[in-house]
Design goal:
Elements: E1 3-6, E2 9-11, H1 13-28, H2 35-45, H3 59-79, H4 85-95, H5 102-115, H6 118-133, H7 135-138, H8 144-157, E3 174-176, E4 179-181, H9 191-194, H10 229-246, E5 250-252, E6 257-258, E7 266-268, E8 270-273
Antiparallel strand pairs: 1-2, 2-8, 3-4, 5-8, 6-7
Helix pairs in contact: 1-6, 2-3, 3-4, 3-5, 6-10, 8-10
Length: 276
């Protein structure tokens, strides 16, 4: 899973990408043989770089293909239920279709699949870089009670999703920061900017786990709050902790290549072991 670049230098991005992908497909009970297909469809739906908000892309076709694929998985669970989340949702739908209609069942599965690994992979990639650059704060990961503080701060400091994937449409004209937004306009809130608002956070451009203050907006809020927030915390913390245990003395071998666009994170993470 770890890609070797040269003697003593490896790229950790494959690890960051595979761990959350394998986790969500396992939870949903999707066949291991379908992981490459699911990865390709999710990449087409939610490209890791560009297009930016308002640009056109061909994600709609990939979304239809993914939905059709998941419809097939639902049908398979009806015939042969298993010990996985898809089967549990099918059982709920069968017992109480009015509480969980078929379309909503498929929508939940689609949302879990699309959001289940690209964003988490980006958070893991950012966490690896911050863990190396800030060893004084990486010790938070050694204490299960404080690991969450490290993860929360990395999600604030460099949010994996920089802006909301779907626009917000105000029902009436509003004025924000002196800018008039007419009713019916399409607005993409920039979560990454809100997370570094100097009016909300002291020293917002510094990575300071345990800083306290308001909760970051990387998981959204209200009706749009991320249902998988706890799983995100758990996966990022688990992988960073495991890397610290298995690869002590980790250092950057060369500058990582940062990703810009819909997702942050890095396209390559060349690292090497150093003597401790």
């Amino acid at each position: 899973m770890i890609e070797t670049l040269s003697h003593g230098v490896v790229d950790l991005t494959p690890v960051a990408e595979a761990f959350p992908r394998d986790t969500i497909t396992h939870l949903l009970g999707l066949p291991r043989t379908d992981r490459e297909l699911v990865t390709k469809l999710v990449a087409d739906i939610f490209p890791t770089s560009g297009p930016l908000p308002g640009d056109e892309d061909d994600g709609a076709a990939a979304m239809r293909r993914l939905t059709d694929y998941l419809q097939g998985e639902v049908a398979r669970r009806r015939r042969t239920p298993g010990d996985d989340l898809t089967s549990e949702l099918v059982r709920v739908h069968t017992a109480r279709p009015e509480a969980l209609p078929h379309d909503e069942l498929v929508s939940i599965l689609t949302g879990l699949t699309v959001a289940g690994f690209p964003q988490i992979a980006a958070g893991i990639e950012t966490g690896i870089v911050l863990m190396i650059r800030h060893p004084e704060h990486a010790v938070f990961l050694d204490d299960p009670a404080r690991a969450r503080l490290f993860v929360d701060e990395l999600l604030r400091y460099d949010a994996p999703v920089q802006f909301t994937p779907a626009p917000r449409i105000p029902a009436r004209t509003v004025v924000i920061g002196g800018v008039t937004i007419p009713a019916g306009a399409r607005v993409w809130p920039v979560l990454g900017a809100a997370n570094r608002d100097p009016a909300v956070y002291s020293r917002p451009d510094e990575f300071l786990p345990g800083r306290g203050g308001p909760r970051h907006l990387s998981f959204g809020g209200g009706a749009h709050f991320c249902l998988g927030a706890e799983l995100v915390h758990l996966e990022i913390a688990m992988l960073l902790q495991r890397l610290r245990q298995r690869l002590p003395g980790l250092a950057q071998a060369q500058p990582p290549a940062q990703r810009y666009g819909r997702l942050r994170g890095f396209t390559s993470l060349p690292v090497m072991r150093t003597e401790r």
